[in-house]
Amino acid sequence: MGASEGRAGAAGKDGDGRLGRRALLVGGAAAAVGSAVLARQELSRLWWRLPGVDRPRVAGAVDFRGARWVGASPANYRRADRPDDYRVDRVVVHVTQGGYASAVKVFQDPAHGAAAHYIVREDGQVTQLIRELDVAFHAGDREYNERSVGIEHEGFVTDASSFTDAMYTASARLTAAVCGRYGMPVDREHIIGHVEVPGTDHTDPGPHWDWDRYLELVRREARRPRRGGAA
Question: What's the rounded Cα separation, in Å, for the pair 122 and 17?
């Protein structure tokens, strides 16, 4: 998904603040059981989802150790409590179609209507812009936004030199950490390109992205003692 390309349509599909399935199931269960105790217990956990109330966050906290925090515009994602309200079972690989600085700039622009959770620079630096518990508007499809973590990679789909050794290594470490956190298999069903999101008109990561190499690196990282985690 090119960060330099307009994606305001993603916000139109995904920009509301609807309650997740957990909240809806909680309400249904409470009504069916008729238990005031159950209702009180669940409401005590869901109070922050009431209109005008936000779940407490730690400013600058990251989900991947060593990542740099640079916050995206709140207009480019939806606050949530994943995986409690939405199951996370996909990683979506993107390419920025531009430089790192331009990608950060558009993700911080509220008019852009889209952003990914992470950007991996060509030198391997990982930047987190949206917490994994939140729904980033990165895939152009509401269901895939809700179920996935989006990782952008600095560069161009037509330029093989964009995808450096440092980038592959850092991105594989990040993806391995995400897969481990959510119990996700390391395979091409669960680690996909933006081009594979249903209905997309994007082509990233493109023909020069070495999927065999990348999956092998992710598997190698997944076999090591876990390094990723909240800092």
Answer: 35
